């Protein structure tokens, strides 16, 4: 409140109030000034009326305090995400039109009970597929949000393609419909889970709920626009199969490109196994830690890249480290090897087993998130030092003693989070260390102190 009053007793009858607006205390602008006396009230507004109206309308689509309340990669991601969503809803009109025609809508020979049964099987397959996908991959989605985001949209493209193909194969209609629904069920689970992880990433002011709500408004606007354009396109291409396919395939290519650009623009500040490996490798070479944006440029985000590497038997360093290995997998030979190397892990709540070119990490049941982080870095170091099939436990322990503290202090400046473990053995750094071991049940081990 600012109160420049006239001199004397008359000053007691004056009050001035200023209104300021902005995303933070350092980014404020004055929007109005009100001055009151015993007999009058005067007000002055700053900025045009249309500007104020536009600001209020924009507030329905962007988080409160934008842009200061979100990360810098929020705008490019949302831009590309909206464009890919727009292409999806346009194509949905084409694929839905084809599917409805395939089940007999508009034909006198079609029966209501027959169409209802086909639609029921389609939805049932999708529900079961979603449950199975969640069972097998649910705990792995947030640690690899970029890759699974691309997978989700690719599966959505595949589901729409199935719908468009359905009229061409009437004898296999139910099978094609169910396969399309199955693909989209994967999309629903993966897209929802990765969206939750990305929302937490964008939220700089603990405003995840606001960001999620505004993202819903953006998606609703894109849906309405896409549906309108899709209906227009469906009307124009009706009866012209070549035009339908050309439009669908062109929009699909654009959809895949927009999704890739959206994911590529992300600079996540949480660590999964690959990002931790990239940081460690650079630190060993240059004694410095990369920034999140630099790390994101080196990530492998294409969903089929890992499968291709498996075919040609190439593994990246982090893929040779198995975090949270089960003690029940140990053989007699493994137990003897652990007994020989156990001295290298005194005063640590973990053990490492170098076996067949891979490092298996056994976490003690009393380990803290800091212990889990240290064990994974130790496993990466041991993997990188392995030569000619010989274990290098001594060298790895020496490197950890001399360099780990420096590495972790520099790492926390760029990635200031705690280590979180998923059921699949993936590592993820997050702000909530209290739940670090909730999903590691059954993979924790214990051993006597002697």
Main sheet makeup: 4 strands, mixed
Q: Count of helices?
A: 13
Judging by the overall fold, what is the CATH architecture of the largest domain? Up-down Bundle
Look at the structure and give the mean pLDDT: 80
**Rg, please?**
29 Å
Give the topology, please.
Blueprint: E1 15-22, E2 28-36, E3 41-45, H1 49-58, H2 74-102, H3 112-137, H4 145-165, H5 173-202, H6 208-237, H7 241-264, H8 273-286, H9 292-298, H10 305-311, E4 321-323, H11 332-341, E5 350-355, E6 358-364, H12 369-385, H13 393-414, E7 418-421, E8 427-430, E9 444-445
Parallel strand pairs: 4-6, 6-9
Antiparallel strand pairs: 1-2, 2-3, 5-6, 7-8
Helix pairs in contact: 2-4, 2-6, 2-7, 3-5, 4-5, 4-7, 5-6, 8-12, 12-13
Keywords: Membrane, Transmembrane, Transmembrane helix
Family: Belongs to the RUS1 family.
Domain Protein root UVB sensitive/RUS: 54-284
Explain what the structure shows:
The structure is a single chain. With 450 residues, the chain is α/β, with parallel strands linked by helices. The chain folds into three domains: 9-47, no CATH class; 74-264, Growth Hormone, Chain: A (Up-down Bundle), CATH 1.20.1250; 273-445, no CATH class. It is 55% helix and 11% strand. It has helices at residues 49-58, 74-102, 112-137, 145-165, 173-202, 208-237, 241-264, 273-286, 292-298, 305-311, 332-341, 369-385, 393-414; strands at residues 15-22, 28-36, 41-45, 321-323, 350-355, 358-364, 418-421, 427-430, 444-445. Strands 4, 5, 6 and 9 form a four-stranded mixed sheet that branches. Strands 1-2-3 form a three-stranded antiparallel sheet, with no helix packed on it. Strands 7-8 form a two-stranded antiparallel sheet. The radius of gyration is 29 Å and the shape is flat. Mean pLDDT is 80; it is low at 5-10 and 418-444.
């Amino acid at each position: 409140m600012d109160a420049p009053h006239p001199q004397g007793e008359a000053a007691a009858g004056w009050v001035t109030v200023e209104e300021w607006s902005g995303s933070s205390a350092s980014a404020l602008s004055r929007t109005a000034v009100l001055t009151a006396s015993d007999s009058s009230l005067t007000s002055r507004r700053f900025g045009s009326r249309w500007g104020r109206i536009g600001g209020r309308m924009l507030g329905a689509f962007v988080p409160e305090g934008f842009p200061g309340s979100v990360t810098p990669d929020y705008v490019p991601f949302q831009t590309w995400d909206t464009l890919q969503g727009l292409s999806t809803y346009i194509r949905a009109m084409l694929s839905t039109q084809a599917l409805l025609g395939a089940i007999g809508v508009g034909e006198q020979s079609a029966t209501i009970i027959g169409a209802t049964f086909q639609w029921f099987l389609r939805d049932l397959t999708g529900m079961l597929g979603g449950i199975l996908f969640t069972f097998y991959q649910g705990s792995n989605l947030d640690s690899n949000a970029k890759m699974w985001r691309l997978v989700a949209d690719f599966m959505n493209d595949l589901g729409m393609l199935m719908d468009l193909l359905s009229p061409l194969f009437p004898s296999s209609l139910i099978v094609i419909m169910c396969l399309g629904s199955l693909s989209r069920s994967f999309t629903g689970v993966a897209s929802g889970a990765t969206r939750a992880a990305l929302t937490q990433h964008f939220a700089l002011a603990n405003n995840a709920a606001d960001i999620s709500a505004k993202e819903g408004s953006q998606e609703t606007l894109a849906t309405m626009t896409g549906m309108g354009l899709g209906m227009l396109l469906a009307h124009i291409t009706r009866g012209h199969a070549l035009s339908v396919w050309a439009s669908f395939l062109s929009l699909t290519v654009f959809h895949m490109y927009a999704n890739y650009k959206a994911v590529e623009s992300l600079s996540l500040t949480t660590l999964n196994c690959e990002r931790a490996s990239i940081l460690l490798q650079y630190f060993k070479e240059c004694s410095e830690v990369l920034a999140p944006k630099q790390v994101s440029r080196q990530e492998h985000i294409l969903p089929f890249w890992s499968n291709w590497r498996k075919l040609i038997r190439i593994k990246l360093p982090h893929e040779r480290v198995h975090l949270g290995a089960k003690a029940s997998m140990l053989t007699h030979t493994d137990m003897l090897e652990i007994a020989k190397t156990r001295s290298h892990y005194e005063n640590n709540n973990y053990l490492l087993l170098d076996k067949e070119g891979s490092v298996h990490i056994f976490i003690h049941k009393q380990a803290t998130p800091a212990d889990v982080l240290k064990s994974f870095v130790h496993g990466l170091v041991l993997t990188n030092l392995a030569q000619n099939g010989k274990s290098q436990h001594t060298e790895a322990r020496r490197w950890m003693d001399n360099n780990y503290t420096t590495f972790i202090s520099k790492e926390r400046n760029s990635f200031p989070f705690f280590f979180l473990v998923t059921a699949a053995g993936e590592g993820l750094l997050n702000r909530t260390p209290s739940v670090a071991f909730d999903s590691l049940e059954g993979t924790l081990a214990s051993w006597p102190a002697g």
